[in-house]
TrEMBL record:
Domain (Zinc finger CHC2-type) ranges: 35-84
Record-given protein name: CHC2 zinc finger
Organism annotation: Algibacter pectinivorans
Gene Ontology annotations for the cellular component aspect, listed alphabetically: cytoplasm
Keywords on record: Metal-binding, Zinc, Zinc-finger
Keyword Phosphoprotein attached: no
Domain of life assignment: Bacteria
GO MF annotations, alphabetized: DNA binding; DNA-directed RNA polymerase activity; zinc ion binding
Keyword Zinc set for record: yes
Any Pfam family matching the protein: Zn_ribbon_DnaG
GO BP terms in the entry: DNA replication, synthesis of primer
Lineage, highest ranks first: Bacteria, Pseudomonadati, Bacteroidota, Flavobacteriia, Flavobacteriales
Amino acid sequence: MNSKTAKELDLIELLASLNFYPVKRIKYDVWFFSPFRNETTPSFKVCSKINKWFDHGEGKGGNTLDFMIKLKMCSISEALKLLESKSFSFHKPKKANNETTQNIEIVSERRIQKATLISYLHERKIDVSTARKYCIELHYLNIQKTNSNNAKKSKSDNRLKPFYTIAFKNDLGGYETRNKIFQSCLFVKAITTIKNDSNTLNLFEGFSDFLSYLTLMPHKENEDFIITNSTSIVKNTIEVLPNYTTVKTFFDNDESGIKATKLIQENCKREFLNESLKFKKYNDVNDYLMAYRR
């Protein structure tokens, strides 16, 4: 790997691989607790638009290569070897094709306890203890800019819209969120990997189907799981398929789910099981669970 390639590697992916996750996001600015020291207020910022970092605590910043050199206190050549190693697997950051961005600030992460969220799980027939094991209750603010209606119409003010939801973390530190009213993705879309050193891999499209499966089959919890969180990134799972003797898919019984199943089957060289056929009268695993426990 040369310096030019290293500088183009996605900083947010690199930070996630090192277990540093976003605390808040305001437009293109993604804030973290500094990797260089202990702190209680996030002062380390990555601008996702230009893929550069700046540490406000030290007044220093740079690109991905600069970050690795500082973090590991090593030379350029040593940093390049680290970035090239199999420990890291990054991509160039995608350029935004519009100005629509999230202005999110996390307020708190806690055990699922709000009555409305527990009621939602009961409605979906999902075991609450299982949901608590893999999900959290997330409270966050959505900072929205709105035009003022007073005399100074040229200016804008900020409104803080509070939300609380069930949240399921992905491999890059983003969250898939859901409650009775809405569902969304916060920060960054990515797959979620749950490893238990099993030779069997189960693939799901969404976390509600994953939780529904464990509600139905709790004795299968010791297997490995990947929740793609979107059929558009199912291709990101192909490279791990050779690591398993058995691969099972539980994608939705719709056009995108059928395409995802076909893609996995075509790239699986070991035993492949399309488990969606077991609930073919239903759209997904959760629909089946709700009918089964009606």
